[in-house]
Amino acid sequence: MASLLEVENIEKSFGGLKALDGIDLSVEENSITSVIGPNGSGKTTLLNCINGIYVPEKGHVTYRGRSILGKKPHEVARMGIGRTFQVARVFKKIPVVDNILAPVLSSHRPMTDLRREAVELLKRVGMEKFTDGIGGDLSGGQQKLLELLRAWIADFDLILLDEPFAGVHPELKALFFEEIRELQRLGKTFVLISHDMHSVYTLSDTIVVFDLGKVIARGQQEEIQNNERVIEAYLGN
Amino acid sequence: MFELILMAIVSGVLMGIIYGLIGIGMNILYGVMRIVNFAHGEFMMLGAYLAFTLNRAFGLSSLQAILVVMPVFFILGVMLHALFYNRIQQSEDPEIASFLTFFGVSLVITSLILMIWKADPRSVPLPFEKVSFFLGPVFLSTGRLVSALICVLAVAAISFFLYRTYTGKAVRAIIENRDAVSILGIDVHRVSALVFGIGLAIVAITGCLVTLSFPAITPVLGQTYTNIAFLVIVLGGLGSPLGSMLGGLVYGLAESLSSVFLPLALSPLVAFVILVVMVMIRPQGLLGKVSTRI
Amino acid sequence: MKTYRKTTLSVIVIATLFLAMVPVLPLSKPYFFYMMFWITMASAFNIIYGFVGYLPFGYVMFYGVGTYVTAVLWSRLGVPLPLAILCSGAAGLVLSLAFAPTLRLKGIYFAIVNFASAMVLRIVVANLPEAWAGGSFGISLSGAYKPLASYYLMLALTVASVVVGLWLSHSRLGIALRCIRDDEAAAAVMGINVSMSRLKAWMLAAVIPSLAGGIEAWFTAIVDPDTSFNLMSTAKTIVYAMFGGLGTITGPIFGAVFMYGLDDFIWGRFPLLNLLVLGVTIIFLILFLPRGVVGSLIQRWPGLRKIIE
């Protein structure tokens, strides 16, 4: 399989603190790669470096063989990389439908089609009654689901999920699983950050473990579970 | 030419000290409350007109007037705080809300001045025998020299307050980090009220000093002083009270030196051009650290 | 959705027809001309402050430059007036592009820099050689005085700016601007080009007052720096737009009609009180009615959003 995203030896520091210290990551097309690690190990910083919120001081990021280093967030998004946030970033004062339309405003498809599709997506996840409400009306879990609907409508090929299951009701979580699986069936690729080990083990093709801005292990479930450095990082020393 | 420049430098420094104090008055409100007092110059004019009336009615000099106007303005400041502070903090964008509110206040003050004192230029007789003198080759205005001295005293008093008293340290702590101090048990609301009072008391000093430093006052002068105050605090760094002194000196010198080289009609341009350039290049001020707020 | 569109359209058509008949009715042409002028200014200002959230405190400069471009082109170069007015619009665009770098400033910094820039323009214009811009006395266009033609041109511009506002609030650009206002970083991550969207709104908000300036110069047939770059014009624009309600389309229209009426009434009787009333109104609006009349109504009864906008 071809690799969709290549992260090579990137470094990013804040003041004296090295948040990312020589990270390598290769994400294969149509896979789900999970990034786990203790709080502050640099997981979210990695996502921010991929979608252009931060520019790493060193290293390369390539997507489909093209460098995306230094590209602005909106340019990265238009290349097909979508993103959800640890705390959902829903536009609180804006109608729910328009919230879903946000990533396709630059597309050339007619607005009426897009609106219809947005409403259909809301129906899919049983949220059609919120169509005319505003983003702020939704619960935390629903806001996270809305972020995923954006990825649907925008047809992002690579979707970066930052803690999608944290604080989400178990029923909604099951729905999330279904949606992610369905998107994967459609050929989408995921990078997943999560503390929810059960979800990580069920969904992931590859798991990468971060600690203090470095990759300390990578592989499948068994390899990770039995890795001494991982146990050390989590349990402390 | 050399003498012209020397005189420009001396007068620039004197005016710069006064401008610095004008800036401190505006900056302390911004630093502590994020309140942009766009009526700053109008409040100064109100102080100047009060000095005028005190002179007419009781024969007080501008210097004596300071002692009367200062407490009045302090109380006025505390009252304004009680009226506006909470409402402004609750609005969506408190900085812009305060800016527009005080723009409204500036219109109210200007119209009140026009109604009470009319539009004619007014002046207060100077309390000195010699209104000007030569110090070597340098021609000095006594009024400006005395004004600058009073400003230096005021700045010393403000520095003492900010660095040596408990409340002053609380004020600086609030400027540093407004969110953290309420956890420390500092009553931000009370300190804000006090700072509003102090800010306007400083305005009272500078307002009275205007009648010493300039031959006449008019109701529309306020806008000019507001602009100068803005420029001074942008130069010195928004929210850094003593940085305003540096800002004042830089602007005082720029203004007086430009008057040597530029036609009179273009001299107001200097302030605005410096303001625009400064904000575009170094919005954190001459000495300020790079802030993430912008 | 459909029926409400029809209502909006019919209201616009009726209002336009009435304003078109003003010159033949026993009504004051200048009164309605300036009413339209303020509707235009407030609606255009709403684009940049209501939709984008940027407060250009020197907004008057676009109008001021518009008045001067028309006056100079007509009086010095003999350019026909309608063409000169188009050039005013173009000048507004150029000016907005020149000030595009200031869009990276936020909040009070943007407001102050814009204000200072307007002051710079005013001083520069007043000090240009008299043979070019007439100095502090300004330029007379009395030779071109055609109140009827300029009245109808202003009517056209007013209708156009209201329609542009309506279009914007439903367009992709409008949605993008609302997203940016809500959460700039999130909007960018979703592929919205933040600076480009803002720039488009900024240009739109600049070209309209510049055209209005050109038309107003023709209507009054006199242009001078104090009037063209008067801070009070910015103030009135802000107050009128805020009074009705920023971010809504009907708000600035209602605000301009009502407040201009009040302003005109007070100005005619108690000129000194005018400033006081304006000041008190600003304070009252910011502190007690920040959403304006229409905005507060919509907030109280959200269903109203379907009827008034």
Work out the strand percent of chain B. Answer: under 5%
Helix content of chain C: over 70%
Largest sheet of chain C: 2 strands, antiparallel
In percent, how much strand structure appears in the residues of chain C? under 5%
Query: What is the helix tally of chain C?
Result: 15
Principal-axes shape call of chain C = globular
What name does CATH use for the topology of chain B?
ABC transporter involved in vitamin B12 uptake, BtuC
What pattern of helices and strands is seen along the backbone of chain C? HHHHHHEHHHHEHHHHH
SS class of chain C: mainly alpha
Mean of pLDDT of chain B = 90
The separation of the N and C termini of chain C measures: 12 Å
Which strand order do you get reading across the main beta sheet of chain B? 1-2
Please explain how this structure is put together.
The complex is a heterotrimer of chains A (237), B (294) and C (309). Chain A has 237 residues and is an alpha/beta fold. Chain A has helices at 43-50, 73-78, 96-101, 111-124, 140-154, 170-185, 197-203, 221-225, 228-235, and strands spanning 3-14, 17-28, 32-36, 58-63, 66-67, 81-83, 158-162, 189-193, 206-211, 214-219. In chain A, helix 4 crosses helix 5 (140-154). In chain A, 44% of the residues are buried. The model of chain B is unreliable at 290-294 (pLDDT under 50). In chain B, strands 1-2 form a two-stranded antiparallel ribbon. Chain C is built from 15 helices and two strands. Chain C has helices at 2-21, 29-52, 60-77, 81-98, 107-127, 130-133, 147-170, 172-182, 184-189, 194-220, 225-228, 231-244, 250-269, 271-288, 292-300; strands at residues 139-140, 222-223. The mean pLDDT of chain C is 92. Chains in contact: A-C, B-C.
Give a short summary of the structure.
Chain B is an all-alpha fold and 294 residues long. Chain B is built from eleven helices and two strands, in the order ααααββααααααα. Helices cover 74% and strands 3% of the residues of chain B.
